[in-house]
Amino acid sequence: MFDLGAEKKMKYEQGNEGISFGQAPMSSPPDGELDTTEVLNIAKDDVLSWPQLVRRTSEHSYPLPVLSQMEHTVRPFVLKSLEVNNAIIDIFNDKLGLRKGKLMEMHLANELSGCEARILRNSATLSTMKLAIGSHTDFGSLSILHNRQGGLQVLPPGSETWQYVKPIPYHSICNVGDALSILSGGILRSNLHRVLPPPSSQANSERWSLVFFSRPSNTTILRALVDDSPVIAEALDKKDVDSKKMFDTGATAQEWCERRVRNRRFANNTQGLDNWKASRGTESVDLASFRSTTVKS
Ligand SMILES: O=C(O)CCC(=O)C(=O)O
Ligand SMILES: [Fe+2]
Fold first, then answer.
1. CA separation for the pair 270, 62 (Å, rounded)
2. Ligand nearest to the CA of 133
3. Ligand 1, closest atom to CA 209?
């Protein structure tokens, strides 16, 4: 799939419109270097409507290994991921003081959304510092990540030191993304992370990972649910005027994702810092941290 050759891969390219599904060359603002990881995104909407496609055209759908495994592998993976995702969303819903089912109403599987499964491959490399995936927050609600090799790092809030997240066998890693952070008035945090080539004994090996990203339905407006929960209203109340603005984006979930995807695309990343700024999510760290290579294991 990733070995198809550049020309054939173009057929499955995600396109320039900020829509994420398909094969995606991403770069790492602010320096605009191409991330070394290759990714293929499969839309939840296409998986659930299969054999019909609603997000990709039949001419530019997905590589053959995806299509031939749709019934036996891709669909069960997406259904199980949605089940796990929904259970976690419901727990957060109650902890945030929202009425039962409020968050789920924004994540209905049969409504069009940016939810997607992602397969990632980073070729073996001798350079231990070349970014496999540049620093970013995830765009949506929850990301459920399955990886066996190291390389994932997080930058804890207020810190300039990246820390490795060690994969634990039979466990997955769950990240909160921007959408849930905004809806919760910042009570849930969308963490800043990046990927380096695997460290120590795994260095020089190819790195594969698999993620399911859940995102609110396309039409969901991304703003803190202050009218639905006193807990969220109180959290937002404590923020200063500038931070408050971040929690009333005026954007739909679709617009939010499209903006972020478009400005992280290698092909679009020609404006240096302007692209970098336009690609940002809910993080509020300075530029120095994005360039920092200080690592604590
Ligand atoms: O491959 C990983 O460990 C992380 C992938 C990731 O952060 C992403 O695709 O957004
Ligand atoms: Fe990520």
1. 28
2. 1
3. 1
Neighbours of 85 (CB within 10 A): 22
Which of 3-17, 64-78, 127-141, 167-181 is least confident? 3-17
Name the phi and psi angles at 253, rounded to 5.
Answer: -60, -35
pTM: 0.90
- DSSP code of residue 17: S
**What residue ranges line ligand 1, CB within 6 angstroms?**
118, 120, 133, 138, 145, 147, 152, 193, 195, 209, 211
Distance separating alpha carbons of residues 40 and 3, to the nearest angstrom: 12
CA 59-65-69 angle, to 5 degrees, is: 105
ipTM summary value:
0.99
pLDDT in tens, 214-232: 999 999 999 999 999 999 9
Which residues, 6 or more positions from 87, have their beta carbon under 8 angstroms from its beta carbon? none
Task: State in Å: Cα 283 to ligand 2 middle.
Answer: 13
The secondary structure of 30-44, three-state, reads CCCEECCEEEEEEEH
N- to C-terminal Cα separation, the chain: 33
The answer, yes or no, to whether residue 289 has pLDDT greater than 60, is no
* Residue 162: φ, ψ to 5°: -75, 145
What CA–CA distance (Å, rounded) separates 77 from 238?
A: 40
